[in-house]
Amino acid sequence: MELLKPLRNKQIEGYTDTDITGLSAISGTIRPGDMFVCLPGTKSDGHLFIQDAAQKGCAAILAERIIENRPPGIPYIVVPDTRKAMAILADQFYEHPSYGMKLIGVTGTNGKTTTSHLIERILSDYGHRTGLIGTLSMKIDEHVEKTTHTTPDAIHLQAFLRKMKDRGAKYGVLEVSSHALAMGRTRGCDFKTAVFTNLTHDHLDYHQDMSRYLEDKALLFTGLGNSYAGKEEKTAILNADDPASAYLAARTAVQTFTYGIREQADVRARNVEIRPDGTCFRVKTPVGEADIHLRITGEFNVYNALASIAACLAEDIPLEYIRRSLASFEGIAGRFQPVDAGQPFHVIVDYAHNPDGLENAIETARRISGGRVITVAGCEGDRDKAKRPLMAAKAAGLSDWAILTSDNPRSENPEAILADMTKGIPPQDEPQWEGIVERREAIYRALSYAREGDCVLITGKGHEQRQIFAENRSVPFDDAEVALEWLKAAKFESEPAGKGGKH
């Protein structure tokens, strides 16, 4: 079995002179000829599904331990770490697709999706053939595939990189989540550039604390290598305004390129102007200055644009081409997305699902609106519980009126999630919030409160088109569509929310 050659530490039982036609870590997707990889997990263990994989015709089994009553006649390979071995084998099976391409990885708590799309757009506009893998989809040219994770597992990731390479892509732009880094999903990827957006509270149910969270992010930067003898110079793009960047700079051996607004940086914005229809600023870079006009608004999008400018300057894209490309970018679904049916107030849908993201979204809504900010916010079930009271405190404390509701409850009781959230709101003589568990009702209520000049900010789900309940039951639900339904039906004669009471 030629595929096994890269694995140095392995035990093999059975006849291995067999062809492997695919790899899978999910027994339900096994096809005859596939190798089944047994991955241990927090909720299930792939070793429990070996018999199922065998019945579906798997040609080999990769495991971390020998089990009793294992299927006879199927090669059984034992390795110390199946996740690491899976990444090695996926890279081998798909013939090392990242080599010969230029991979740009974008990581950080917030801004990964917009930054990666901006980078991909600039490179594409300049004439480079480019593929993109991230939260919204995996795409190259007109070929688009839906994703279930920000960063796919090693098998699917390498498979798509292979498709990119076969279609002639010179660049691959990847959103790289901290989960993916910790789980080794990007092992085998030869990144040329790593971009860091920011580090704020999120995913601590998985990472346990902020120091571990940062350590996992750092894996992208330490993985850039320790040699200067390669064909391509590698670069780390770091946010100078985020304290975590100093740690990342110390952890990587490659050259760094910084960006920011407040601190000294290689790529720095000044004269920032936030407007309802976009953002303007002047950028100073090592190759000159330019006036940047964006159709997307908010200071957080200034940071996203600066990161993309730095990443593309590192690829020798002329600043003038970058400026033109940024001016034509119209934004992406669910990222501070306007919903307009002719109403006399702003309606914005945003993916903000952690405290910092929510604060940024509310502050931007405040800057573009001459009236009040009415915020709809919720928290997911089976996810970081520590951020729930923080999210509620931001929503209630920064908005003129907040409606706390459900997001994706999953296996949890939505009312219990809401109770966790409200613990973060200090007692007030005049409450500035109310709780409505049913999300559609919450959105309708917020819209009914709005009057001319206000901004209704609907946060949490962004681009998502389904709401997830217990046992993975899901129903269609798109915040923008739900808002549009109400706006089309309404006559825009609203009864405004008071600053201190329910309606």
What key phrases describe this protein's structure?
alpha/beta, 11-stranded mixed β-sheet, 6-stranded mixed β-sheet, 15 helices
Q: Round the Cα radius of gyration to an integer and report it.
A: 24 Å
Number of helices: 15
What is the spatial order of strands in the main beta sheet?
A: 9-8-7-10-6-11-12-13-14-15-16
Helix content: 25-40%
Shape: globular
Q: How many beta-strand elements?
A: 24
- The quaternary structure here is single chain
Question: Which consecutive residue ranges, at least 5 long each, have pLDDT under 50?
Answer: 498-503
- Average pLDDT value? 92
| N-C termini distance | 69 Å
Main sheet overview: 11 strands, mixed
Query: What portion of residues belong to β-strands?
Result: 15-25%
Output the structural class: alpha/beta
Task: Kindly describe this structure.
The protein has 503 residues and is α/β, with parallel strands linked by helices. 31% of the residues lie in helices and 22% in strands. The protein contains 15 helices and 24 strands. It has helices at 50-55, 82-93, 112-125, 154-166, 178-183, 204-207, 210-222, 244-251, 299-313, 319-328, 355-368, 387-398, 414-422, 439-449, 479-489, and strands at residues 11-13, 22-24, 34-37, 60-63, 76-78, 102-107, 130-133, 138-140, 143-145, 171-175, 191-196, 235-239, 255-260, 267-275, 278-285, 288-294, 337-338, 346-350, 373-379, 401-406, 433-435, 455-459, 466-468, 474-476. Strands 9-8-7-10-6-11-12-13-14-15-16 form an eleven-stranded mixed sheet, with helices on both faces. Strands 17-18-22-19-20-21 form a six-stranded mixed sheet, sandwiched between helices. Helix 3 crosses helix 9, helix 3 packs across helix 10 and helix 12 packs across helix 13. The longest helix is centred in the middle third of the chain and has 15 residues, at 299-313. The chain is globular, with a radius of gyration of 24 Å. The N and C termini lie far apart (69 Å). Residues 498-503 have low confidence and may be disordered.
